[in-house]
Structure formats: structure tokens, C-alpha cells
User: Which sequence fits this backbone?
């Protein structure tokens, strides 16, 4: 297959991936994921240490909350604690909750600007996320790296990415998920493929199984 045909094939596959969450795209009754800079940030930890020589703060078994957002981890490190312009590293059982979106990972690098969480880069074997979409509906995914843009309300999965809405699945090298619009795009990368698995409705399976 020529390069142009391969490129067109990948674009078609990526376009097909939009169908995974397209049925709810543009919904207006979803929560706003914009950060709340007017709310205080609370930090609780089992213990804390300050390495003055290296200007490093270490917290163990910590929890950080700001309104509906919550971050927990076994260990957190930062060079400053005022959250005005700070970079935090979290390690061990890291969980980030924010308005129905939850991310689990082994290690996370979080950036705070102007007293709000702006972005997070999360790694794991794999790192996982889930998004509750009302009722029992849930979108979930995993990959080696998850990049969470809090302001844009987007989650980008890369390195063996997989995403499912509970009925249909899509996998590829990179997948982007818009939390507000529940909109998915997928990319096969340089040499791979976008793969989809579309399951028939439960009623169809029950009819086929009936004698």
C-alpha cells in the first residue's frame, strides 16, 4: 500500500473512533471542569520534612483538596508550597479526582500556576483513568502516559493507549478524550493501527442466545 493510501486509511480509522463518544458530544448538562481559583487549597499529611540545603519539601501520605478536586499519594515533593508557581512530584498510589474524572498512576508531575492545578503528567504500568458520565455510564482508559490538561478538560493517552465507554473499545498509539464534550480522537502513530471493537447491544446477544 502506498504512503498516501496508508495515511488516508489512518485518517479514516481516527474518524471512526469519534463515534465512540459522539452520541453525547456537545451535551450542555455536564459539569464545568474549569479550576476554581477562588477556593483555598488544603494540604494534609501524615508527616513532612524540609531539606533546606536542597530547598525540597517532602510530605508522606498526603491529601490535597481544592473544592471538588482531590489529590492523594504516598509521597509528594515540591520546591515551594504556596501553589503560586510550583511543580509537584507525587509517587505511590497517586489518585486525582475532579468532578467525575479520576486518574490512577504510579507517579505524577503536577504544575500549579496562580493557585490552581493546570496540568498533570502521569505514568504507570499502566496509568488509568475513569470518567463517570451520569447514572451508571462510565468511560475508562489506560496507557503508559496520561497527560491531563485541567483547564482544557482533556486527557491524552499515549504508549499503548486503550479507551472504552463500556460497550465499545478503541486502541492506538495515542488517544485524546475531551471530558466536556465526551469526544474521542485516536492516532495510529508512525507504523501502527487504530483498532476498534464494537459490541452488539445486550438485547441482540440475548436474542441470539435464545433457543
Assistant:
Amino acid at each position: 500500500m502506498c504512503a498516501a493510501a496508508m495515511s488516508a486509511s489512518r485518517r479514516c480509522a481516527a474518524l471512526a473512533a469519534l463515534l465512540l463518544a459522539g452520541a453525547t458530544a456537545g451535551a450542555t448538562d455536564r459539569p464545568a471542569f474549569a479550576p476554581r481559583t477562588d477556593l483555598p487549597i488544603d494540604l494534609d499529611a501524615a508527616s513532612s520534612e524540609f531539606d533546606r540545603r536542597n530547598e525540597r519539601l517532602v510530605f508522606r501520605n498526603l491529601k490535597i483538596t481544592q473544592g471538588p478536586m482531590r489529590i492523594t499519594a504516598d509521597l509528594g515533593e515540591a520546591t515551594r508550597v504556596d501553589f503560586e508557581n510550583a511543580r509537584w512530584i507525587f509517587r505511590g498510589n497517586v489518585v486525582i479526582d475532579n468532578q467525575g474524572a479520576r486518574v490512577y498512576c504510579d507517579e505524577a508531575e503536577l504544575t500549579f500556576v496562580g493557585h490552581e492545578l493546570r496540568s498533570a503528567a502521569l505514568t504507570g504500568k499502566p496509568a488509568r483513568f475513569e470518567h463517570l458520565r451520569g447514572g451508571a455510564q462510565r468511560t475508562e482508559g489506560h496507557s503508559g502516559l496520561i497527560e491531563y490538561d485541567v483547564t482544557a478538560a482533556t486527557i491524552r493517552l499515549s504508549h499503548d493507549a486503550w479507551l472504552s465507554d463500556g460497550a465499545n473499545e478503541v486502541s492506538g498509539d495515542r488517544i485524546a478524550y475531551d471530558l466536556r464534550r465526551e469526544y474521542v480522537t485516536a492516532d495510529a502513530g508512525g507504523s501502527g493501527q487504530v483498532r476498534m471493537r464494537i459490541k452488539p447491544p445486550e438485547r441482540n446477544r440475548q436474542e441470539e442466545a435464545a433457543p
Q: What stands out?
A: The radius of gyration is 20 Å. Confidence is low (pLDDT under 50) at residues 1-33. Residues 39 and 66 are 6 Å apart (CA to CA).
